[in-house]
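Re: the pair you flagged

First of the two:
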Amino acid sequence: MKTVTLDAIDRKILTELQADGRATNVELSARVHLSAPQCFRRVRALEDSGVIRGYRAEVLPEALGLGVMAFVSLNIDGGQFGRVRQIEAEIRAFAQVLECHTVSGDNDYLLKVVARDLKSFSQFLTDRLTQVVGVDNVRSMICLEEVKPPSALPVE
């Protein structure tokens, strides 16, 4: 993403859209005190620049039968660093992996993973994730309770 300078109105738009991504342009323009055409132009510019990455519904995992959430840390085998982008592509392809981040510290990656139950989570780790050539030292932490669900980014 190229460097984008956000002014106060852009920040208001982002705050409003994070709170209600389904707001119409007319509703949004009223909330941020802009004309509808000006608001539309700004939203389109935020989308085109990549500041707004997309819109989607937040679905309760349990409603889809996904009762287990876990964080999985892993390393890349030292001899496989030449394949790191291919390994990342394979990890991205797993529907169970909601997020994947490179991290500092003792591990190379931290993944957020969902599964129906502990058995299916175990099967995912054993039959899929650890079978990716180059994945090494997989450790998991099962989430017991979500204390704070995903939320809007602070717009200051």
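Second of the two:
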Amino acid sequence: MENKELQQITEQISQNDFNRPFNDRIIFNPRLRTTGGRYIPTRRIIEINKKYYTELGRDELVGIIKHELCHYHLHIEGKPFHHRSAEFKKLLSQTNAPRFCERLPSEASQSTLIYQCGQCGMKYNRKRKLNTERYRCGKCRGEIFFIEKD
């Protein structure tokens, strides 16, 4: 799928689900890594992570587009368009758009490192290695030890 086809799909979803036209641009951004998409209000452009389309398919892509269109249309109307606003949550439910996108299968397969506090027993799950000489437990300030790789 190319940006031209993505633009057509978005215009169609906007007209069918929101009853409003989408007059701006939507593109695939290959630099997005941790999110399915984002709306940039200053440029009035929507960027989509192409990995979600390639790994999870068209249905997930449509959900991400709907989510970003909620941000877009609320911004155009001058209403609060952030995740925490009541208007945003209401528009999500009206259009049956997801609040969060699913986790990518390629990202889910990464292993987790488990650390534990020596004093209170608090466990920490991390994706990246933690320098146990530098950091302490956030609960009791105790020393943290590496337990296992999950």
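Residues 111-149 form one domain.

-B.
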